[in-house]
UniProtKB/TrEMBL annotation:
Any one GO biological process: stabilization of membrane potential
Lineage summary: Eukaryota, Metazoa, Ecdysozoa, Arthropoda, Crustacea
Annotated Gene Ontology cellular component terms: plasma membrane
Domain Potassium channel: 21-106
Pfam families: Ion_trans_2
Protein name, entry field: Potassium channel domain-containing protein
Region span, Disordered: 118-156
Keyword DNA-binding: no
Signal peptide (UniProt feature, chain positions): none
Sorted UniProt keywords: Ion channel, Ion transport, Membrane, Transmembrane, Transmembrane helix, Transport
Ranges annotated as spanning the membrane: 12-33, 45-61, 81-101
Positions with biased composition (Basic and acidic residues): 128-156
Subcellular location: Membrane
Length: 156
């Protein structure tokens, strides 16, 4: 149990900030792989996103820098380690950003459901007739249209 109230320290990060941060991270990775592999920028962006998202189609994979630097094994190992660490950090960043965005979207959907009356949430505004006795409703309907309640009772 935490000795302080965590609700006070809850911070929401706007969805646009999350998306900009992810885009910047992917572009930075693209520049890195463009440098390592001599790929075009859009191919490097594609590879970085596909790898960070753990889709991995296998159509792009780092090979040129590993083969070219085979004689200089330290350089090849350093590039490999930098790539692995960068992609692992990207997976964590993507996971965190998606989770933050999911929480905000779910909260906005709940708010919308409460606003339009679709939610059975206890915080939602109650229908004023919801807790009334059915006989009281029948009596109130009788005063407006005496035949309406009889039609309902008869099944018409």
């Amino acid at each position: 149990m935490l000795p302080f109230d965590t609700a006070k320290f809850q911070v929401t990060v706007p969805i646009t900030i999350n998306l900009v941060l992810l885009a910047a991270y992917i572009m930075l990775g693209a520049l890195m792989f463009q440098s390592f592999e001599s790929w075009k920028f859009h191919s490097s962006c594609y590879f970085t996103f596909i790898t960070v998202a753990t889709v991995g189609y296998g159509d792009y994979y780092p090979k040129a820098s590993m083969v070219n630097d085979l004689g200089a094994s330290f350089v090849a190992t350093a590039k490999m380690m930098i790539s692995i660490l960068y992609l692992l950090a990207g997976m964590a960043l993507l996971s965190m950003a998606v989770n933050l965005m999911q929480e905000q979207i779910v909260e906005k959907c709940r708010w919308l459901a409460r606003e339009i009356g679709l939610s059975g949430d206890s915080n939602a505004p109650k229908d004023p007739n919801a807790k009334k006795d059915p006989k009281a409703l029948k009596d109130s309907n009788d005063s407006k249209d005496p035949n309406a309640a009889k039609d309902v009772e008869a099944g018409n």
